[in-house]
């Protein structure tokens, strides 16, 4: 019997993309992609692909430094894993902003700090929508600091 359709692709075969839900003063940072063309204009969580052998928390810190010029601390991985392009999966991490003011240095044309009631104000990439719902629940449960 061909079970291939019923068998999910093992996560081991996927490249993990880490996204950072950076919470600060009751808001979360959203970033509008500037490339590639089919993703440009869509909003996402800053982050990127894990390098071989790299821990997710380390990739998160590295990507936020490269893309935004800030230092973050990876707090914890949020529940869920969302398929992206074939072969890629998005993992989301809660992160604290330790140092710096985020700037769109790489891959993004605009950044916005969104309050919970503003999460629906930007055009998220479709594949991020369920992750945004997880962040909305996190923000509802997190006292604004
Ligand atoms: N960072 C990030 N990428 C996302 C999200 N949602 C989503 O579909 N993606 C896609 C966009 C890209 O195809 C891929 C991540 O690639 P990237 O270009 O950000 O990764 P990277 O910084 O490691 O880039 P590179 O070295 O390959 O240039 O995942 C998201 O919320 N955050």
From TrEMBL:
<keyword id="KW-0460">Magnesium</keyword>
<dbReference type="InterPro" id="IPR000086">
    <property type="entry name" value="NUDIX_hydrolase_dom"/>
</dbReference>
<protein>
    <recommendedName>
        <fullName>8-oxo-dGTP diphosphatase</fullName>
        <ecNumber>3.6.1.55</ecNumber>
    </recommendedName>
</protein>
<keyword id="KW-0378">Hydrolase</keyword>
<dbReference type="GO" id="GO:0016787">
    <property type="term" value="F:hydrolase activity"/>
</dbReference>
<keyword id="KW-0235">DNA replication</keyword>
<comment type="similarity">
    <text>Belongs to the Nudix hydrolase family.</text>
</comment>
<dbReference type="Pfam" id="PF00293">
    <property type="entry name" value="NUDIX"/>
</dbReference>
<dbReference type="InterPro" id="IPR015797">
    <property type="entry name" value="NUDIX_hydrolase-like_dom_sf"/>
</dbReference>
<keyword id="KW-0479">Metal-binding</keyword>
<dbReference type="InterPro" id="IPR047127">
    <property type="entry name" value="MutT-like"/>
</dbReference>
<feature type="domain" description="Nudix hydrolase">
    <location>
        <begin position="13"/>
        <end position="138"/>
    </location>
</feature>
<keyword id="KW-0234">DNA repair</keyword>
<keyword id="KW-0515">Mutator protein</keyword>
<dbReference type="InterPro" id="IPR020476">
    <property type="entry name" value="Nudix_hydrolase"/>
</dbReference>
<keyword id="KW-0227">DNA damage</keyword>
